[in-house]
Design goal:
Elements: H1 6-15, H2 20-47, H3 59-65, H4 77-83, H5 107-146, H6 149-164, H7 175-186, H8 192-231, H9 233-240, H10 243-253
Helix pairs in contact: 1-2, 2-5, 2-10, 4-8, 5-8, 5-9, 5-10, 6-8
């Protein structure tokens, strides 16, 4: 597209992801915006007399926070196998999002926080709105790819494969069913070691069975996205133009210089 900024590239991959690398790259934009919002809130609340702690925003912290995978839409088989886990870096049986505060927050602070949220929410929403139309079109394109004869044939092969390893038929028909029902039921144990053992058993099975399906799906999605970006160049370029001004506005609200945080270096 028109801009060469890494943040713009990350935003496009966040709103219009087609492949696993694009999803992973796009998650950096999502985390960046949420961290900037956290900095805005901290600065705003501090101005109202509340004790706050702003998030540390740099390439390292963003990379750590953006690692939560989407195994049903963008399964990263390489990361699964290297970490022997479906949710690397955390226990699949634990809450994935932790809040920075503990205990009860005073109602006055809650009210101030709601007020502090309004401006950053509006700024972030402006970018989301800019991408909404072209994003909806891309979602329809994704569905067409996923429903294609070639992809569906590989999905049926995946289902047959996991069934041979003992997955009941009602949990084998899709990645959603496999993760949403079967794996969650297996991971219901309160024993963390048992959950880890379950993951170590099923990760290589899932990777083996899903690899042909994922390969075809990602290849066709990648081809479709390249064509989509060309055919929707004007819409995407117009949406891109909202990104850097939005980031600059968030930094200003956070009390930072526009170029004070080298987020994507």
């Amino acid at each position: 597209m028109a801009s060469t900024s890494p943040l713009v590239s990350e935003a496009v991959d966040d709103f219009l992801p087609g492949t696993v690398p694009q999803y992973n790259n796009g998650s950096k934009y999502y985390i960046t915006m949420n961290m900037l919002k956290g900095s805005v809130d901290a600065n705003c609340l501090a101005g109202k007399g509340w004790k706050t702690k702003a998030p540390i925003i740099n390439a390292h912290t963003i990379a750590i926070d953006s690692e939560l995978p989407d195994n049903t839409e963008f399964p990263d088989l390489q990361m699964m196998l290297s970490h022997h886990s479906f949710l690397w870096g955390q226990d699949i049986g634990e809450e994935s999002i932790q809040t920075a505060q503990s205990g009860r927050v005073p109602k006055a602070e809650e009210s101030d926080e709601e007020n502090c949220d309004r401006k950053p929410d509006q700024i972030i929403k402006s970018v989301e709105t800019a991408f909404s139309g072209v994003g909806d079109e891309w979602s329809r394109q994704i569905k067409q790819v996923d429903n294609s004869t070639a992809v569906q044939a590989k999905l049926r092969a995946f289902s047959s494969c996991v069934e041979r390893y003992g997955v009941p038929g009602q949990y084998a028909g899709s990645l959603d069913a496999f993760f949403g029902d079967y794996i969650q039921s297996l991971e219901s144990s309160e024993d963390a070691a048992e959950r880890r053992s379950t993951e170590r058993h099923w990760v290589p099975i899932f990777a083996t069975c899903s690899r042909p399906y994922v390969a075809v799906e990602m290849r066709m999605r990648g081809q479709a996205r390249a064509a989509f970006l060309k055919s929707h160049y004007q819409e995407v370029t117009a949406a891109e133009a909202k990104i850097l001004p939005a980031i600059a506005a968030l930094k200003k609200l956070a009390g930072q210089a526009a170029d004070s945080v080298s987020i994507s270096d």
